[in-house]
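Tokens for chain A. Residues wanted.
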């Protein structure tokens, strides 16, 4: 068993007024984040993508196992294959695999089986969950992988928005085609597909109302 290593925490106290100002500014910024389905084809600098991915890598994880892999796809042919496979699954979903109630919930968002954004967006970030790890020819269990990868994706979405990029969380179900197209090892399971880039000049998004704080927060 590996012995625990500890180091001093780098923590600098911040005046309460500044803390509130930072939190308020961050909330205001995040309030403008929207899921985008209409992307320009303009490329995103690799250095920018590397920086936001590092932000995702700073997320906490169960037992600090960091059970995630982020695959960045920019090759046009690979994006074309992903779109074709995703649309095939979505045709099945909208054609009867999804319950009518599910389709009713999606209707106000204007979504359907067609996913041109998977080719238009200059980059697709495909996030994989590592179900287990391997070392010395032996497998070992990863703990809390769903929770850990979900938190990392949250970090990534916030970082993308903060950097001035738009994104969409797309989860065509099932997503096994991503593991095959991207030739991922058996331990990895596709978690979410995120087109990333800049919105078109006439991009529109659904008009949404968000829950007020007192609708989702309880104080005791």
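Reply:
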């Amino acid at each position: 068993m590996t012995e625990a290593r500890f180091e001093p925490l780098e923590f600098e106290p911040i005046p309460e007024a500044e803390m509130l100002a930072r939190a308020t500014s961050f909330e205001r910024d995040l309030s403008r984040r929207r899921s985008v389905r209409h992307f320009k084809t303009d490329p995103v600098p690799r250095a920018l993508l590397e920086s936001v991915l590092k932000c995702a890598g700073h997320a906490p994880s169960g037992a600090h196992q960091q059970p995630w892999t982020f695959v960045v796809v920019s090759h046009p042919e690979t994006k074309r294959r992903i779109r074709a496979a995703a649309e095939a699954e979505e045709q099945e979903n909208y054609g009867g695999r999804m319950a009518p109630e599910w389709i009713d919930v999606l209707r106000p968002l204007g979504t359907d089986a067609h996913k041109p954004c998977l080719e238009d967006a200059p980059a697709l970030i495909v996030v994989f969950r590592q179900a287990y790890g391997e070392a010395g020819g032996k497998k070992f269990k990863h703990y809390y992988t769903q929770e850990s990868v979900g938190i990392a994706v949250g970090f990534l979405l916030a970082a993308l928005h903060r950097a001035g990029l738009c994104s969409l969380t797309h989860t065509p179900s099932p997503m096994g085609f991503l593991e095959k197209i991207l030739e991922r090892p058996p331990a990895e399971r596709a978690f979410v597909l995120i087109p990333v880039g800049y919105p078109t000049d006439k991009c529109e998004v659904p008009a949404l109302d968000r829950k007020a704080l007192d609708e989702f927060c309880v104080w005791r």
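Residues 76-97 form the longest helix (22 residues). Helices lie at 16-30, 46-57, 76-97, 100-106, 117-120, 145-162, 176-181, 213-216.
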